Amino acid sequence: METARQVLDHVGGTLVVTQTILVEQYWREIHDGLTAAGIPVHHFLLDTGQKTLAERIETDTKPEGIDARQCVLTTWPTMSEPCPGSVRRPR
Question: How many Cα atoms are found within 13 Å in the side-chain-facing hemisphere of 90?
Answer without folding.
Answer: 9
